[in-house]
Design a protein that fits this description.
243 residues, mainly alpha, 9 helices
C-alpha cells in the first residue's frame, strides 16, 4: 500500500509538470507566436483559446502540486481537453479517417482527459476516466504495427533492433488496454506502461529536445510522454482495490 501511494504521488507530479509545461507553451504561442518550443501542443489555437487553455493547464498544475481544489481543477481540465478533441479532431477524422495524425493526437488528448477524470477521484468519473485512458492505447498499438518501419526510425541508433522495439511497444499498448478495461492485472499493466513512457522521455525525447531546442514538435512529444507516464501511474493507483 505504501508503494502504491508513492506511485500515485509520482503520477500526480509527472502529470502536473506536464500540464505546467503545456501551459507555458500555450502562453508562448498566444503572446509571441515564436520562441523556444513555440507552438501549443497538438495544433495551433487562436489567441483567446490559447490563453484560456494556458490558464486551465497552469491552474490544474498548481492545484495538483498544492493539493488545493484538485477535484475541481481536474474536472475543468478534463472538460477543456475533451472539448479540444470534440471540436478539433473529430471533424478532421470525419473528413479523412485514413490520416493517422488526428488519430494519434486526438487519442493522446483523450487519454489525458481520462487521466484528469481519474485524478478527480469520484468513483463514476474514475471508471469513465480509465476507459478513456485505455481505449486510445489500442489505436497507438495498431499504429505501431502499421507504421513500424517509420516508428523504428525514431529509436536511437545506439539501440539494436529498432523494428523489434516498435512492434514490442505496440504489443505493450494493446495488452495494457485490454488489462485496464477488463481489470485483469490492470494495475500491473498500467504501472509498466508508465515506466515505458518514462523511459521514452529519458532515452528518446530528451536527446531529441536537446538536439533541437527550438522545435515545438519535439517539446510537445516529450511533454506528452511525461504526461502519459504520470497518467498511467494515476490509473495504476486507481486500480489498487480492483486488480
Amino acid at each position: 500500500m505504501k508503494r502504491m501511494g508513492k506511485l500515485i504521488e509520482l503520477g500526480r507530479m509527472f502529470f502536473a509538470a506536464a500540464m505546467a509545461a503545456f501551459g507555458i507553451l500555450y502562453l508562448l504561442h498566444a503572446s509571441f507566436g515564436a520562441g523556444p518550443g513555440a507552438g501549443p501542443p497538438w495544433m495551433p489555437a487562436p489567441p483567446f483559446w490559447a490563453y484560456f487553455t494556458a490558464v486551465v493547464c497552469l491552474l490544474a498544475a498548481a492545484a495538483i502540486v498544492a493539493n488545493i481544489q484538485v477535484r475541481c481543477a481536474a474536472i475543468l481540465l478534463a472538460v477543456t481537453i475533451f472539448l479540444r478533441v470534440l471540436l478539433n479532431f473529430v471533424p478532421k477524422l470525419a473528413a479523412n479517417p485514413r490520416d493517422p495524425g488526428p488519430w494519434t493526437s486526438g487519442g493522446e488528448l483523450l487519454s489525458l482527459c481520462g487521466a484528469a477524470l481519474v485524478l478527480a477521484g469520484f468513483p463514476v468519473l474514475v471508471r469513465i476516466g480509465r476507459l478513456l485512458f485505455a481505449l486510445p492505447l489500442l489505436i497507438f498499438g495498431i499504429q505501431h504495427f502499421l507504421f513500424a518501419r517509420y516508428i523504428a526510425t525514431l529509436v536511437p541508433s545506439s539501440i539494436p533492433g529498432p523494428r523489434f522495439w516498435a512492434v514490442f511497444a505496440g504489443m505493450g499498448f494493446v495488452v495494457s488496454a485490454i488489462s485496464i478495461v477488463t481489470l485483469i492485472q490492470g494495475r500491473l499493466a498500467a504501472t509498466w506502461l508508465g515506466i515505458m513512457f518514462l523511459l521514452w522521455v529519458m532515452i528518446l525525447h530528451l536527446p531529441r529536445v536537446t538536439a533541437s531546442p527550438h522545435n515545438g514538435n519535439e517539446w510537445t512529444s516529450a511533454i506528452v510522454a511525461l504526461a502519459m507516464s504520470g497518467a498511467a501511474f494515476l490509473v495504476a493507483g486507481s486500480l489498487k482495490q480492483e486488480s
